[in-house]
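Figure 6 in text form: structure in, sequence out.
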């Protein structure tokens, strides 16, 4: 694909960083369609402009980058998404993998790395910055494998817990007994490798809420 055909929407709530990225992309032949400084603006522009690529920061007002991606895909967007962030902790890598993000770059990366990411993403590959240790990426893969061990019923219950639904409410909604829900919770704890305790599962789910809801 010719660079001029690679249309891009960028989103970051730091004006200087946003301008620097857009100037660099433009000077290297890419076509910037629009820029956003918050999540809802980014979502609206992606749906309106239908760019080939969207570069998104994670920490943005109103909607974060992950929420923008989830909502855009739910509305049928075919755009490929690249996160550009300061975060390289496992928590964020797990979310990126859960949302099946196309590329994940760090703001410290060189433009050469950005172009390499673009090339890989357009070939249909998933790309993580070389600046990210392999250990967090491996950790993220292992965490998602655990979630894949859950049955459809267990996954549904996990999502309901993420929405802070009580055992009684879950039982009523699924036409099951509270005892059955408690048994499901125990099975989920075992499959996720968590220590048993009164609030263990609830605390884990709330900490990993975005990952759970992305499944």
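Output sequence:
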């Amino acid at each position: 694909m010719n660079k001029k055909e690679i249309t891009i929407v960028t989103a970051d709530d730091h004006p200087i960083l946003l301008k620097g990225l857009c100037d660099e992309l433009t000077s290297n032949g890419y076509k910037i369609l629009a820029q956003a400084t918050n999540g809802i603006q980014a979502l609206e522009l992606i749906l309106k402009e239908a760019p080939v690529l969207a570069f998104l920061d994670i920490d943005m007002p109103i909607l974060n980058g992950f929420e923008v991606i989830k909502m855009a895909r739910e509305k049928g967007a075919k755009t490929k998404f690249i996160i550009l962030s300061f975060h390289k902790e496992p928590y964020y890598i797990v979310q990126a993998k859960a949302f099946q993000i196309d590329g994940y770059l760090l703001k410290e990366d060189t433009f050469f790395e950005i172009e390499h990411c673009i090339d890989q993403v357009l070939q249909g590959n998933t790309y993580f910055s070389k600046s990210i240790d392999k250990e967090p990426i491996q950790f993220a893969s292992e965490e998602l494998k655990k979630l894949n061990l859950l049955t459809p019923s267990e996954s549904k219950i996990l999502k309901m817990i993420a929405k802070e639904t009580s055992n009684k409410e879950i039982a009523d909604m699924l036409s099951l007994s509270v005892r059955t829900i408690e048994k499901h919770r125990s099975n989920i704890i075992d499959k996720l490798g968590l220590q048993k305790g009164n609030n263990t599962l609830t605390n884990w789910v709330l900490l990993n809420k975005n990952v759970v809801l992305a499944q």
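Caption detail: The beta strands are 7-11, 31-36, 53-56, 80-85, 103-106, 127-128.
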